[in-house]
Amino acid sequence: MKFNLLAALLWATLLSCQDLVVQEHIVGRYYLIATDSEEEQTLGYALGNGSFIGLVPGYVFAVAYNKKYIVVKQRPSYDDKGIVNYYTIECQYVDASHMKAVNSPPSTETVFNSNKAHLEAFGRLKFQDFSN
Question: What's in the keyword line of the UniProt record (predicted)?
């Protein structure tokens, strides 16, 4: 637990210290971001002071969302096209200008689709592809 918090704070510090090569607004305070190369795209949350905290590690290549969830397709690396992980982020509105994310562990497409069938809130998500 302490390691995860330390890693998240370090990642947020690093993201706030560099210019971003990718800063694509998704919804609310959620952005597709990359610091050095598009091959490192990650889903980040804007802290409101010009810095971001990373929520899903790169390489993020597709995102879908609705009012309740953001679903991210991610590969362990840009070149690894054989593995696709799905991250589901539940957006909880704290107030009109701030959203808090509850991130699930990654799942495979099979697990994601079986969970999706049980959750009406997913509806018909359409992924926006951000790969090159």
Answer: Membrane, Transmembrane, Transmembrane helix
> How far is Cα 29 from Cα 37, in angstroms, rounded to an integer?
21
Strand partners, 90: 69, 102
Residue 5 makes CB contacts below 8 A (sequence gap 6+) with none
Structure letter (DSSP) for residue 57: -
- Find tokens 């990359």 and name the residue: 34
Tens-binned pLDDT, residue by residue, of the chain (132 aa): 454 554 554 455 554 445 888 889 988 888 999 988 888 899 988 888 888 888 888 899 999 888 778 888 899 888 888 888 888 887 765 443 444 555 566 777 777 777 666 555 566 667 777 776
> Which tokens go with 130?
């951000």
**CB-based contacts of 63, cutoff 8 Å, min separation 6:** 26, 32, 43, 70, 71, 72, 73, 127, 128, 130
User: Which single residue is written with the structure tokens 């099979």?
Assistant: 110
Neighbours of 76 (CB within 10 A): 14
Question: Does the CA dihedral 110-111-113-117 come out positive or negative?
Answer: positive
